Amino acid sequence: MWSSRLRERRNSLSNGGNHLYTHEQIRDMIFEYHWRRNRLVDEGYTKESNGTAQYGIEAAMPKGKGNTSNKVLNIVTRNDTLYRVLYKHIEVVEFIDKYEHTINDDMNLNILYEFKKGKNFTQVKKIMKIGRDNLNKRIDEIVNSYLNQQEQHKQQHQHNQQLQQDKQHQH
Predict the structure, then answer these.
(1) 29, 27, 35: which is closest to 142 by C-alpha?
(2) Predicted structure pTM score
(3) Cα separation, 94 vs 10, whole angstroms
(4) To 10 degrees, the CA torsion angle through 132, 120, 145, 27?
(5) Cβ contacts of residue 91 below 8 Å, gap of 6+?
(6) Percentage of the chain modeled with pLDDT above 90
(7) Alpha-carbon gap, residue 32 to 92, rounded angstroms
(8) Is residue 66 helix, strand or coil?
(9) 149 CB-side CA count, 13 A
(10) Could you give the C-alpha distances from 60 to 34, 38, 44, 72, 129, in angstroms and in order?
(11) What is d(CA 39, CA 48) in angstroms, rounded to the nearest whole number?
(12) Alpha carbon separation from 141 to 97, 105, 107, 127, 163 (Å, rounded)
């Protein structure tokens, strides 16, 4: 998983990951995956991150030493903005990675992998030797897999919440 500090902050900002994405948002997330993941790697965040900052934005954060100056405030403000951007990157990368295993069609899965590697629409069309309409149809199928998983996750979450409420009312 990504850095626990970033994940906690992201969850507090994104309502615990219960946000439902639209078809168009998921489609965009697939196309954005590669560059967003590269930005995370460039900032020193990997799935194996243990939360200890050796480089990246956490290492650049000011250490508490007493007086707060404008310089420190500027650094903190800049870092907060960078964190918000990084949270979005993590959210996109984790969402795409989380449900990719649910894509049952081998060709669709390979298409997703090509986009994840940074290939553009035209390149994927050539690699897969398919036409524009076929590729668009397959991208829609991929997005629909994500939409279905997202809906199932939402229903499971609602069911669990209901069980917790019922349990609390019994006591």
Answers:
(1) 27
(2) 0.68
(3) 12
(4) -100
(5) 10, 14, 17
(6) 51
(7) 8
(8) coil
(9) 17
(10) 25, 19, 12, 11, 46
(11) 16
(12) 16, 9, 11, 18, 33
- Would you call 37 exposed, middle or buried from its count of C-beta atoms within 10 A (0-12, 13-18, 19+)? buried
pLDDT at 74: 60
| Statement: residue 80 has pLDDT above 50 | yes
Q: Are 33 and 98 in contact (CB under 8 A)?
A: no
Length of the chain: 171
pLDDT at 58 over 80: no
Confidence of residue 9 (pLDDT cuts 50, 70, 90): very low
Sequence letter at residue 29 = M
Place of tokens 């994405």: 21
Average pLDDT over residues 82-92: 89
Identify the CA nearest to 28 among candidates 115, 148, 109, 157: 115
List, for residues 124-168, the tens digit of each pLDDT value.
999 999 999 999 999 999 999 999 999 998 888 888 888 888 888
Amino acid of residue 100: E
